[in-house]
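Section handout, structural biology tutorial.
Before the tutorial, make sure you can parse a SMILES string by hand: atoms, branches in parentheses, ring closures as digits. In the record below the ligand is adenosine-5'-diphosphate, and the chain has 357 residues. In the tutorial you will relate the predicted structure tokens back to the input. Do not try to memorize them.
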Amino acid sequence: MKPLPPGSVIGILGGGQLGRMLASAAARLGFDVHIFAPEDSPPAARVAAMHWQAAYDDESALREFADACDVITYEFENIPVQSVDFLVSIGAVVRPGAASLEKSQDRLAEKQFLNAIGIETGAFAEVSSVSDLEQALKTLGRAGILKTRRDGYDGKGQVRLKSGDDLAAAYADIDEVPAILEAYVPFEREISVVIARGADGSMAAFDPSMNDHAGGILRTSIAPCGLSDDIIARARTMAEALARETGHIGVLALELFVLEDGTLLANEFAPRVHNSGHWTPEACLTGQFEQHIRAVAGWPLGPVTRVFDAEMHNLLGEEALAPADSYDKDAVLTLYGKRDAKPGRKMGHVVARTGRA
Ligand SMILES: Nc1ncnc2c1ncn2[C@@H]1O[C@H](COP(=O)(O)OP(=O)(O)O)[C@@H](O)[C@H]1O
Ligand SMILES: [Mg+2]
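Predicted structure of the complex:
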């Protein structure tokens, strides 16, 4: 596919805040954006040229959407792989392709894939019954995190366990769905690498950020991450291998645990722009949203040079109703336009530029 000229239509599967910020970045480059999402008036649809409101498996709606779009991308990883396969089968260009999506939807397949391409993870075991769980907890060192294989986000679908806990109750807590048990990783800090791979195979990684979570939800990302050049180089190499091996076109994010001795263990990856990259538009020459649009449009990637040190804070639930109280006045505010400020829901974020890079 030739680079798309301005005025072309970029379709996005998914209507959340990531789609909203992608749509804004695309508009700035002269593209029109069509959002395909089942919800009524989701955040992304309210900044886009058009909203196709239909179920992700509605093939006649997908067909019309494909006819209207020059390229199609996605903004969240729980789009059915079959929908992407269908779009490709009728001749649509979908970037990134189904491979990245498929690998990231299932925590078991994801970890096996990461290990197979030489990216180390913590120890894990498949859990399909209480007796699997019992056995896994013994093997993995008596403390672990039980996670549903599919559909988890923001720490949802996870139960922390140690030996002596009621395992039947824990498995019932996640509705006895297919799961994995992960050994608890005693990390020194968490970082992520947000990387873009262009249609020509070129790659550009942002400086890794250090990420702080509370209750499984990202609260803060800080760049630079404060680690040695050697660790940063290894983190980038891992993200590059992942982008290359999935044949990814667009942005992806690799979440890593950093151990005391500098060992890096992959936690998970997202085949899309990522919350831990929300500082990039304010701190780098090209932000993650513009970069993703450049990649899927077949444009050259932009320079990812970091101009500022930065701190990104998420605004959760009611924090976003009075944002002026939650950040200092020099910070840059982004609100997602969500109508219901449920506790813990990501409603917006602020980015403080804390110094010159
Ligand atoms: N095996 C683990 N050991 C230690 N902490 C973990 C482990 N798995 C997850 N966590 C903590 O929980 C957070 C959320 O878990 P994650 O697997 O990334 O799920 P989600 O898909 O909800 O982001 C991680 O960023 C980390 O802080
Ligand atoms: Mg995560």
